[in-house]
Each structure stands twice: as C-alpha cells, then as structure tokens.
Amino acid sequence: MVNVGIIGGAGYTAGELLRILIWHPQANISFVQSTSHMGHLISDVHRDLLDETDLVFSQADYKAIDVLFICSGHGKTKLFLEENNLPETVKIIDLSTDFRPRTNNKGFVYGLPEINRDKIVTADKIANPGCFATCIELGLLPLASANQLTEEVHVNAITGSTGAGQNPTSTSHFSWKNNNVSVYKAFTHQHLEEITETVLQLQPNFDKEINFIPVRGNFSRGIMATIYTDCDWTLEEAVEKYKIYYQNHPFVSISSITPDVKQVVNTNKCVLYLEKHGRKLMIISVIDNLLKGASGQAVQNMNLLFGMPEILGLGLKPIGF
C-alpha cells in the first residue's frame, strides 16, 4: 500500500486526483492539505465525491507518506520545497511547470511515460507534463524517434475551460466563455519549451520551428490538437510506425476514424489519427486535459515509481494483479 499526501487540494487537478486515488486498490490517502479549506470536508469542495470519502482537509504529515502530489499553482512548488524539508524517503510528483525544463529540473524526471518510462521507474522526483504538451508530444514522438521531423511543425490545439484552473478570470467565467472561442499566447505558450525539449530528446538534430496556436474552447474539458508537417512516409507507413512505437504503451491508441474529444473525456487515454495530404502528414491527438494531461498521468507515474502495473486504478484491467 502506498501512503499518499496531496498539497493544494482544492483545485481541479487535485479533485481528479482524489477521484482516482479513493478507489485505487493500492493507495491510501494520508492527508489532503488546502490553506483555504482547512478542517472542511473534502466532499464540500469536490462535490462529486459526496459519500465516497469522509476525509477532511488537514495539516500535512510528511513522515506518514511515501509520495507527495503537489497540485499548487505554477511557481509555488519551488517556494514550497525551499520552505519545507521533506524526508528523503518521500517521492514527489509535481503537477506545476516549475521543474519541467531541463535547465531548471533540480533532479526532477520529466514524467511522460511514453518516452521516459525507464527513467521514471528509478526516479525520486517527477515533473508531470503539461496538458497541451502531453497531447502534442504524443502526436510527434514516433516522427522524432525515426528522425522524420525535417521541416517546421504546425499545431492548432483547442482546450476546455478547466485548463485555466479553478480561479475565475476575465476570460474563463461563463458569460465570456459560453458561445465563444479565442486564440491566446500564439507562438509563445509556456508548454513550447517542454515540447521542444522532448522532441530533441529523440531527435537531437531537430532545428525547425514548432508553430503552436492555442485556442480557448467553450467546453469544460478535453484537448484536440491538429498537427501537420512534411513527411516522406506514405499513410500506411505512418500508421504502422505509430502502432509500433506505441505497442507497449497502454494509454495511446491509433484510430482509423477521426476522433473527437468526448471519446477521451474522463479517461487517461490519448487517441491519435493520421491523414496524408501530399507531403503533409496530419496528426489529430485528443486527450482529457485533467487526466492524461494532469492527474491521470500523475497516477500513472505513481504506479511506475512504486513497481505497480502502469494502468492500475486508471480504468484498464491489470493482468495478474
């Protein structure tokens, strides 16, 4: 049994994490900490958990846990680790951007199992990937692994409103978001750095631009990324290469039919679809931003850290466990 602590327990990612861990057969939630809700029932904040748990938000006891999930806002994990001395035996899974870039990783392993599974298994600290980054990287990894990214990559990706977090802003409240779509952070999104670094991990000679246009959608959850670049493979070759790359990665599926966001919402799956148009290979990638793009992937990483089946507690049936 793995004893779990959660810091920053009131947000969307923590809510999804709790929903998974409450029913995870090998996880015990030791504490959930939230400075704004201390002493309150977790189910009063995450109301979908009514009658599923009687846990309350409480003080952290780091000596009682094996792994700590940090679900605080971006920039806060660095501060937290500076102010708190955790036992050396406690593993960390951070869901912020703080330690994803290689130049500032402080010993954190980038937690995308489809490229770093072997490193994750032996790690002590995991930087959980961003949601856009996960969706886009999974669309590009088979190309990078075959040294096939020879031209610029173009990405248009739309995300649900939960990607902006729980605290309302001028562009996330209902009256603005409803019946509306908008572009933001074109060519400058913060996930571009980790996407580029991940591509370079497989294809070190890649020196072209990744042109990324993020879009705010008027739906709650999910990401659809449409990616295209020049590629010499035929469609049949591309599909075969993608299937081979992901044959041992249980949460990535190659579809012969154009996917949609509803296909992956409330799952830890990524569904990929390929088309060829002249020299252009188009890849459509869809994930749930709160699960494969955040909390589901974090539990996937926890499973790997503690020698459990990668899929345990995430909706697929483990064999022989």
From TrEMBL:
The active site is at residue 131. One of its GO terms (cellular component) is cytoplasm. GO terms for molecular function: N-acetyl-gamma-glutamyl-phosphate reductase activity; NAD binding; NADP+ binding. Pathway: Amino-acid biosynthesis; L-arginine biosynthesis; N(2)-acetyl-L-ornithine from L-glutamate: step 3/4. Keywords: Amino-acid biosynthesis, Arginine biosynthesis, Cytoplasm, NADP, Oxidoreductase. Its EC number is 1.2.1.38. It comes from the Bacteria. It is an enzyme of class 1 (oxidoreductase). Pfam families: Semialdhyde_dh, Semialdhyde_dhC_1. It is found in: Cytoplasm. The keyword Cell cycle does not apply. PANTHER family: N-ACETYL-GAMMA-GLUTAMYL-PHOSPHATE REDUCTASE, CHLOROPLASTIC-RELATED, N-ACETYL-GAMMA-GLUTAMYL-PHOSPHATE REDUCTASE, CHLOROPLASTIC-RELATED-RELATED. HAMAP family: ArgC_type1. NCBIfam families: argC (TIGR01850). Belongs to the NAGSA dehydrogenase family. Type 1 subfamily. This is N-acetyl-gamma-glutamyl-phosphate reductase. The lineage of its organism: Bacteria, Pseudomonadati, Bacteroidota, Bacteroidia, Marinilabiliales.
